Amino acid sequence: MSNAALSEAGGLQARPLTSVVGAEITGIDLGDVSDAHFAFVREAFDRFAGLLFRDQDLTPDQLVAFSRRFGDLDHAPVMENGRTAVPGLPEVYLVSNIKGSDGKEIGSLGSGEAVWHTDMSYLAAPPDISMLHAIEVPPAGGDTWLCGMNAAYQALPEDLKRRVEGLRIKHDGTYNSGGYVRQGVTPTDDPRESPGTYHPVVIAHPHTGQPLLYLGRRRMAHIEGLGLAESEALLDELWSYATQEKSAYRHNWRIGDVLMWDNRATMHRRDPFDASARRLMRRTQVKGATKPVAYTG
Ligand code: OGA
Ligand code: MN
């Protein structure tokens, strides 16, 4: 699609949110998306890696129907409280600090910081896409940040790009991004021993072929074949190029916002917010169509 076509098609517009990641799409109702509109959205998603849609009044079923156009959906994982999110809608997960009548949180991640990460990359075929729909937002805090992993790769010095060629990083499966231990896992202190999956440090985007730095999350990561000290030093060096705030997109939520991100081409984090404020996101997740594949130039 040409730049002109991408900036305006059938009343839709894509407005970049930063110079490296994210665009806001206007002129669309996600509850009623024609094939032509969907083609525009799909193309914009590959190009910008994160998309924002404001003022979306969607039922959970409509969120699921829109999400499904990108691929098969995962069923919501069991939450920290041991329950699934929405009875009757297995594809919808809740991210929330709100407590139910039993005193337990109705969703995941609490009100603390969620550190930089990409979703569930401890799996062999991690989810391609995650999508949040804001139902309740706190008066302050709880912003969600996206950073671009093609830009992160491009920022690496040439000698570092060469040094990581062919290397793999273990993506840890012990902790989720809120620091909670995942169901059924016994934590260890040694990243070489923890559950997880090794993925190439630099992967090719499955649609665009672009090189992406693929880090997953910092805690308990390990570079295959390296001793702990050497692995930690190289990971710290790689991370120093990845999450620079000046090029990240910071999303300040309004009710009705839909934010979706590509889990290979971006990482995300969330600011903490006041535990007594309410925040509720409905969330869907598109299955990984393929395993992450090494970029070979
Ligand atoms: C997630 C996530 C951050 C947020 O849903 O994967 O990291 O802003 N959420 O709620
Ligand atoms: Mn996440």
Polypeptide structure, described:
- This protein has 297 residues and is of the alpha+beta class.
- The chain has 2 domains: 172 residues, 4-Layer Sandwich (Double-stranded beta-helix), CATH 3.60.130; 94 residues, no CATH class.
- 19% of the residues lie in helices and 25% in strands.
- The strands form 4 sheets. It has an 8-stranded mixed β-sheet with strand order 1-2-3-15-7-17-4-5, covered by helices on one side.
- The chain is globular and about 50 Å long.
Main-sheet strand order equals 1-2-3-15-7-17-4-5
Q: On the 0-100 scale, what is the average pLDDT?
A: 93
**SSE pattern, N- to C-terminal:** HEEHEHEEEEEHHEEEEEHEEEE
**DSSP E strands, number:** 17
| CATH architecture grouping of the largest domain | 4-Layer Sandwich
Could you name the CATH topology of the largest domain? Double-stranded beta-helix
Radius of gyration: 19 Å
